[in-house]
């Protein structure tokens, strides 16, 4: 069975440094798609890079960091500084029912429309910054917005055997496992709205310095073999997998990123490390030896 691997560069548009790294990775054949943040210092440059290249354009829907896109002062979706509440507070507020769904709807629609305005076309796919698109209080609003704008592809960030990845920082594991649980629940909603995903997904366990050629090869093979077992009777003759990555160059602490600057993740040298691993001869040989073809999200349109 043919194996199609989509390699996505997340947080495109975060800064000029991130954009430079994403495009370097793309030009080296190391990634195939990129997910654009709309409220960052490199957003407009990233949108222009979509227009001048064959990089597959995606929207990185953001409800957790920075300022919103809608020209509206939200009462519940943002804090007293009119920034989103943050990666950890936002899900807690959603869980408690303290964020108005009408404000979520407005922001979803505004971000899709802003992407179309900047790029000149709708995104091929939409995923969620920090996977917020699959939160139980967001996923149906998200799926309805995609359907309204004739977008049919998103991310299903479930990496199998996640708890067994002993190299992952144990501080991150509860967040990853809780998010995977939410994703499983959200899948029925996506299916009901006709929103497609890849057959498998990897990348939670290989962010930054946790990424090595050996680990990437292990998780990618596990993902394809699992998908092939589940879909053995599928008449398509192929399976698909998405690898989530974060290539780039370190962003300036104050001058790049969101309205308040960049966090440690954005400033880290780990962004360069990912470029080097993804474009390494070891990975290119691995793809050839294991019948893996690198493709973009456009493969899911057929």
UniProtKB/TrEMBL annotation:
Gene Ontology molecular-function annotations: deacetylase activity; hydrolase activity; metal ion binding
Cofactors required: Mg(2+)
Pfam families: YdjC
Top-level taxon of the source organism: Eukaryota
Record keyword Repeat present: no
InterPro entries found in the cross-reference section: Glyco_hydro/deAcase_b/a-brl (IPR011330), YdjC-like (IPR006879)
Keyword entries, A-Z: Carbohydrate metabolism, Hydrolase, Magnesium, Metal-binding
GO biological process, one term: carbohydrate metabolic process
Similarity field: Belongs to the YdjC deacetylase family.
Function of the protein: Probably catalyzes the deacetylation of acetylated carbohydrates an important step in the degradation of oligosaccharides.
Name of the protein in its database record: Carbohydrate deacetylase
Organism the protein comes from: Biomphalaria glabrata (Bloodfluke planorb)
Source lineage: Eukaryota, Metazoa, Spiralia, Lophotrochozoa, Mollusca
Gene it is expressed from: LOC106055868
